[in-house]
Amino acid sequence: MKIAVVGATGLVGNVMMRVLEEGKYLPLNSISDFIPVASEKSVGKDILFNNRKYKVVTVAEAIKMKPDLALFSAGGDASREFAPLFAKEGCIVVDNSSAWRMENNIPLVVPEVNGHVLKGSQTIIANPNCSTVQLVMAIAPLHRKYGIKRLVISTYQSVTGTGAKAVQQLENERKGVNGSRVYPHPIDLNIFPHGGTFLPDGYTTEEQKLVDETRKIMQAPDIKVTATVVRVPVFGGHSESVNIEFEKPFDLSDVNKILSSTKGVVLQDDTDKSVYPMPKYSEGRDEVFVGRVRRDHSIENGLNLWVVADNLRKGAATNAVQIAALLLQNEILKA
Q1: pLDDT confidence of 120, banded at 50, 70, 90?
Q2: Rounded to two decimals, what is the model's pTM?
Q3: Which residues are marked as active site?
């Protein structure tokens, strides 16, 4: 199988390569050739993949090489322009941008939640927003049992979600170095309720993604969802405070059993020992961590959760590779 990573020099692209190298989801021996793709300024650079050097190529060169699979993490504009060109040549594209997520004919997939929507006819498959991925991993099994009526989500999102320049801004601020900035305010020793761009109704694009993508993935268009996105000065991952109102009554011990038995979810909830999920300890992990599970006494059938995951791995790169693995398993993708 010939695999291209488009955006190979970026934060997510780099993690995609690491996840592929680990061989946990796609066997390394199923990859016959590897094609790193990036912008013109990176063309010709050496990329190390599986102990071998590869030259970064342009999109046009990569298309001519006819990959079987292209993992895209190059931004929405690039995905809109180039993903169809790869697909036209018979390549299956798994795209990490927001470009295709809400298109009716494009599946938006978290394999553990809605992998069944993958059919043999799709050439472009959308990878959800990182915050949405970890959210639905935690709430989908609960929705199947109790039916979710309403969600209130507050996120605490790592600077890594913005990219390498945001990481550099935080590091510069901590060292007292003047450098380029991607945020409108200092991020060190600060937080701000601003992720994405503001929409006319006062919400941001990142908040709207949580609304729209959650409903699409869970095939539950009637769930009421509201979100507030906050950027925080951490590297390890994204955290979410999730308030759920269920249609049906629930038993708290059953909720814990469901969460602890859900593939890809780790329950960390022992408050007597100060055990609960934290982004510092989610970094480099593929699981979604859930804790602070408790009843919301202010509403009927209310529940609070704290959900944490590495946004570069399960929130992006790992989920994309898992989609590819499912395509291979279902013989939609041939190796």
Answers
A1: confident
A2: 0.96
A3: 130, 238
